Amino acid sequence: MSGIVKTPARTGGRVNLLGKSEQELKDFFGEIGEAPYRGKQMFGWIYKKHIEDFTAITGFTKSLRARLDEIAEIKYPDVVNVEESGSDGTLKFLLQLADGNKIETVLIPREKSPEDEGSLRETVCVSTQVGCPLDCKFCATGAMKYTRNLTPGEIISQVFIAQRYARKRITNVVFMGMGEPLLNHEAVTGTIKILTDDNSVNIRAKAITVSTAGIADKIPVIAREPVKFRLAISLHSLDDDVRTLLMPINKKNGLAKLLPAVKEFHRLRHDRITFEYILFDGLNDTESDLARLVKLSREIPLKINLLRYHPLDHLGRLGLEVDPVALKLKPSNRTEEFADRLRENGVTVFVRSNSGEDIDGACGQLAARNVKKNKKSTVNQ
Q1: Which one, out of 63, 125, 176, 342, has a CA that is 20 to 30 A from the CA of 208?
Q2: Does 2 map to a domain?
Q3: Helices 22-31 and 37-47: crossing angle, nearest 10°?
Q4: Statement to judge: residues 217 and 356 lie in one domain
Q5: Same domain, yes or no, for 228 and 336?
Q6: Where residue 210 sits, what CATH number does that domain have?
Q7: How far is residue 215's CA from residue 254's CA, in Å, rounded to a whole number?
Q8: Rounded to whole angstroms, what are the CA distances from 305 to 184, 192, 255, 343?
Q9: What's the CA gap between 355 and 91, in Å, rounded?
Q10: Are 165 and 107 in contact (CB under 8 A)?
């Protein structure tokens, strides 16, 4: 499946209203001499009715619509490419931002909910940065390096673009795409506030998950934010040396800092924490690793998502830089056994499906391929 989502052509100097909160829209209308309540109306038109052209706003006068068209816009990224998995229907989008940078978004359709096996959910995985500064050895986004943070408009647009292709209403949003959400936490929490507003798409707070590699000092900060969401920690080892090997961020955010911050999050929010754990053969799938996870489950109410590793060897074949550590990582063949052993010790465990594996479903792979192409040509520009 492939296609381009058409958006009205715009010229420079206009204010993009996509991503603005209700209060920011009220302030905008006040600044142009209009009644602030117009901002509340505009909020609903943008986020509930998904208009992209001011002429569609029947509640505004013709003159106001014409003025808005002169000074403002509702601009989405361009959809450069869409790939569809032949095995499970997962869709992966490559989006081009206004400045030419590219990000990716993944739509996982009709996925079973781990919490309720009788329900199905439509999940979109969104990016929060162009590239990523953390250089986790198992993540393809590291091959792209870091460029900048995304704006709230660039984040929320990913949800609405995915909705155009979805077979049913999107029920879940996960901040697990390109980038580290807590290094852009103001834009992330601003986006969540819009998504959960009942005058917007009104997604349940419990259906939104923010995944972090573990920026310890930011975790208590977001715990005190008024918006609600689930927290997931990209853990992958409870051995500091191994975790540092896999995730260099652990040098400054070691387990001695990270785990107390997570406990503080739980103290403030009373939510169960999700720990994401990719199993690597002989590295973090040992009996000692099992014992550490069981011990952690006694200290923090948690669930563990066991993930399968997507090897990055193909990025090297594309000519992109792949860290030697990544080339040595191999998927574990103990996933089901590991999960069973944890369950025997009372740990809640889910073995997550490998959605979109046939289309390089792992974070950053589609965008990384495109980065390499653009070094040689202007394809898809």
Answers
A1: 342
A2: no
A3: 130
A4: yes
A5: yes
A6: 3.20.20.70
A7: 10
A8: 24, 23, 19, 12
A9: 9
A10: yes
Q: Which residue segment(s) compose the domain that 67 sits in? A: 16-73
C-alpha dihedral over 36, 37, 41, 47, to 10 degrees?
60
* Buried b or exposed e, range 269-282, using 16+ CB within 10 angstroms: bebebbbbbbbbee
- Judge contact between 313 and 127, C-beta under 8 A: no
Choice among 104, 111, 122, 276 that is catalytic: 104
| DSSP state string for 331-378 | B-S-HHHHHHHHHHTT-EEEE---TTGGGT-STTHHHHHHHHHHHH--
Mean pLDDT by 10 residues, the chain (381 residues): 38 86 98 97 97 93 96 97 89 96 92 58 96 91 86 98 95 96 97 97 96 97 96 98 97 98 97 97 97 98 93 68 84 95 97 62 50 41 26
Same domain, 136 and 225: yes
Given 34, 49, 73, which residue is the final one in a domain? 73
338 vs 287: CA distance, rounded Å = 9
Residue 95 included in any domain: yes
Domain with 38 in it: what CATH number?
Answer: 1.10.150.530
Q: Does a structural domain hold residue 137?
A: yes
Name the packing angle between helices 185-195 and 152-165 (round to 10°). Answer: 40
Predicted structure pTM score: 0.88
